[in-house]
């Protein structure tokens, strides 16, 4: 058996899909099928039960899976050890969203690497669903995401229950009364859809009315808040840093529909090596939200 066969087996076992495994490994589906068949031939056992709709592990496949995962882990650790011969003790891959990198975590990551020069880092920016998929696929060591996950190889920890606040540019004249939901359109409201519970909540708040301007990036929102003297919603964790930098101010907002909460989770992959560095890093990341 070889490493590519084991990778194909592990990814099919986790994704329950030959097609998805082929996408992950960047090969055609027939290659995945061939690798599984060769592995089954070498082991003398069927590893999967297949029909037109479902793929599941056989009893032999379930027995073999943890051993295959360990072999692959040892292979990765060996490659990492060779790559770290240039003086780094550990290498960690960390992923989160653009907004959290830019407005919550950048300073903490920068300080961490300056105080731990023996640890090399790779930073990945993606949406939560893609980060979770990469965690499952073993491509990321640590991630901060907005959705929970239950997986045998991933440790999950709730960091905070965040919320949303209405903000404006720091030069905005704050009214002496609460802004009501019916008032948003009169204040040059700029919409950034934060997904999750925010999407349904804002749909109710706005009575499904289209917004005059929608953006998909915090930096764009901030620019339009300044040029349009408008309003927009930010997660509190993001707004807090921008308030400290005197870039935005909170505008009092009142609605009879409660502003939703947004859970932020820290995910870390179970590993036999790099555990000390992973613990140090995750503590730094968590402290950034305090």
UniProtKB/TrEMBL annotation:
Residues 1-58 form the HTH lysR-type domain. The keyword Ribosomal protein does not apply. Signal peptide: none annotated. Keywords: DNA-binding, Plasmid, Transcription, Transcription regulation. It comes from the Bacteria. It holds the Pfam family LysR_substrate. GO terms for molecular function: DNA-binding transcription factor activity; transcription cis-regulatory region binding. PANTHER family: HTH-TYPE TRANSCRIPTIONAL REGULATOR, HTH-TYPE TRANSCRIPTIONAL REGULATOR GLTR. Belongs to the LysR transcriptional regulatory family. This is HTH lysR-type domain-containing protein. The lineage of its organism: Bacteria, Bacillati, Bacillota, Bacilli, Bacillales.
């Amino acid at each position: 058996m070889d490493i590519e066969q084991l990778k194909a087996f592990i990814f099919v076992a986790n994704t329950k899909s030959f097609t998805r495994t082929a996408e992950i490994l960047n090969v055609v589906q027939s290659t995945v099928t061939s690798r599984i068949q060769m592995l089954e031939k070498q082991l003398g056992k069927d590893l999967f039960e297949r029909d037109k709709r479902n793929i599941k592990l056989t009893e032999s496949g379930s027995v073999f899976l943890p051993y295959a995962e360990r072999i692959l882990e040892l292979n990765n650790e060996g490659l990492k050890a060779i790559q770290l011969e240039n003086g780094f003790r550990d290498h960690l891959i960390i992923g989160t969203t653009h907004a959290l990198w830019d407005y919550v975590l950048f300073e903490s990551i920068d300080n961490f690497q300056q105080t731990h020069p023996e640890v090399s880092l790779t930073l990945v920016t993606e949406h939560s669903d893609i980060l979770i998929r990469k965690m499952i696929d073993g491509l990321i060591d640590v991630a901060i995401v907005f959705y929970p996950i239950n997986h045998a190889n991933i440790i999950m920890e709730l960091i905070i229950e965040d919320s949303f606040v209405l903000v404006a540019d720091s030069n905005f004249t704050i009214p002496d009364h609460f802004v009501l939901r019916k008032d948003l359109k009169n204040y040059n409201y700029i919409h950034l859809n934060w997904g999750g519970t925010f999407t349904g909540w804002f749909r109710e708040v706005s009575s499904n009315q289209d917004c005059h301007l929608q953006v998909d990036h915090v930096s764009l929102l901030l620019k339009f808040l300044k040029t349009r003297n408008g309003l927009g919603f930010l997660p509190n964790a993001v707004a807090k840093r921008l308030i400290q930098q005197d870039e935005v101010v909170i505008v009092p907002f009142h609605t009879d529909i409660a502003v939703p909460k947004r859970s932020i989770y820290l995910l870390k992959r179970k590993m036999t090596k790099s555990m000390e560095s992973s613990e140090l890093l995750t503590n730094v990341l968590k402290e950034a939200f305090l």
